[in-house]
Amino acid sequence: LGSSLRNAVSKIMGKSVIDEAAVNEFVREVQRSLIEADVDVKLVLEISRRIKERALKESPPPGFSRRDLAVKILYEELTNLLGRKPAEIPMESKKTNVIMMVGIEGSGKTTTVAKLAFWLSKRFGKVGIISADVMRPASKLQIEQLVGPDIPVFSKESKDPVEIMREGIEFFKRERYNFVIIDTAGRHKDESSLMSELDAYREIGPDLVILTIDGTIGQAAYAQARAFAEKVPVGGVIVTKLDGAAKGGGALSAVAASGAPILFIGTGERVDDLERFDPERFVSRLLGGGDIIELAMRIEEAFKESRLMERMSKGKFDLEDFREYIQQLGKAGPMEKLLEMVPGIGGRVQLDVNSGEMDRWIAIINSMTPEERRDPSLIRGSRIERIARGSGVTAKEVRKLLKSYHQAKKLIESMSSESKARRLFRRMGIGG
Ligand code: GDP
Ligand code: MG
């Protein structure tokens, strides 16, 4: 998948004029590489339709070409599918977090339980394993051989997996383990019922259910992930056997389309063959490296900036703009630099805020409702108290932020009308 998508990108990057024909060609190549990689056909059509429509309709921000924009749109559509940041592994520090591994026979559950235990124990303290695969008693030995002597594996002679799980959890809780990972018996491919997972889930109530999906099954991964997710609340997926699998992109996008976040990928049979799934890096590799991501980010920033500039030059400035403004401030350095770009304002708005305060201010604005952000006059009395509580600051600090905001807004309004007046004068031949 990677090399042909990379080709499509480098081809369009080499073009000087991007017209409809060039966009069509780009979209056709993207389509071909996704289909070759086993990505679901409906999904491919949807993605390519959106790329085409957006690449022709949207205009690039100042300083960027339509060609840059097309690549950014491809990047965006792929990350929309897969997510951007690695999905969080939910955990609480003061308890024994229970993870249950589910998946069909042979998908790599037992191996992945060992890998995950190994991974977690290196980072987050004590990890224990419960081997509750009553269909395959040998899997306890399988895990022990993988993890070695440092990670304890609990099991007992019993036909009842729930009983094993209960006793195991009790044991590890008593010993104050941070994590317990439960290996379960997998259903066979042909069994449609997933009752045992559901039963065990209800009885045990784990904090997280992880589903293993064999990455070599291509786009069939979609149906499988869906089928499980409909029965038990799957909190994350690990796609296994992606070592050397040419069609990995298909399985990954299929799983992503099912709505469950991919936490890790398995890349071999050894205990350390587990990689955190980083969607952005994955897409970056697909598209030919970090340069493309950087380009996409720069365009995104430029879009935000030009939108803000446009609003400010019209004298519009609500608390959402203010938040954006503070954020850009953090990136751009001196605010004057930003303001110079607003017609008629040039470096005259002073904002008394330091970088520690900036983060707090953003937290305060985040604690407001969208209505409040768009109509700041609503924010009075008890609302101020609520916002302060929500963002963990004092009411005084919220008032200080509002005061700064109102000062900035007033100035921006007067500047923009001043510049309007100046333009009018200039047109009438008065002043310069
Ligand atoms: P389970 O039946 O779901 O518990 O699956 P197992 O953990 O027993 O794995 C089935 C087979 O797949 C074993 O031979 C594993 O060594 C192999 N396997 C599991 N994960 C990976 C992986 O990421 N890469 C490769 N190459 N093999 C794997
Ligand atoms: Mg097993």
Please outline the helices and strands.
Blueprint: H1 2-13, H2 20-36, H3 41-57, H4 66-82, E1 97-102, H5 109-123, E2 127-132, H6 139-147, E3 153-154, H7 161-174, E4 179-184, H8 195-204, E5 208-214, H9 220-231, E6 236-240, H10 248-257, E7 262-266, E8 274-276, H11 279-287, H12 290-313, H13 319-332, H14 335-339, H15 355-366, H16 370-374, H17 382-391, H18 395-427
Parallel strand pairs: 1-4, 1-5, 2-3, 2-4, 5-6, 6-7
Antiparallel strand pairs: 7-8
Features of the shown structure:
about 425 residues, alpha/beta, flat, Four Helix Bundle (Hemerythrin (Met), subunit A), 18 helices, binds magnesium ion, about 55% helix, GTP-binding, 8-stranded mixed β-sheet, P-loop_NTPase, binds guanosine-5'-diphosphate, Rossmann fold, 434 Repressor (Amino-terminal Domain)
Number of strands: 8
CATH architecture of the largest domain: 3-Layer(aba) Sandwich
Q: Low-confidence segments, ≥5 residues, pLDDT <50?
A: 333-338, 340-350
- Which sequence of strands runs across the widest sheet? 3-2-4-1-5-6-7-8
Bound molecules: guanosine-5'-diphosphate, magnesium ion
Give the class from helix and strand content and strand pairing.
Answer: alpha/beta
Strand content bin:
5-15%
In the CATH scheme, what's the topology name of the largest domain?
A: Rossmann fold
The percent of residues in helical segments reads 55-70%
Count structural domains. 3
CATH class identity of the largest domain = Alpha Beta
Mean pLDDT, to the nearest integer, reads 83
Order of helices and strands: HHHHEHEHEHEHEHEHEEHHHHHHHH
CATH homologous superfamily grouping of the largest domain: P-loop containing nucleotide triphosphate hydrolases
Radius of gyration from the alpha-carbon trace, in angstroms: 27 Å
Instruction: Give the number of helices.
Output: 18
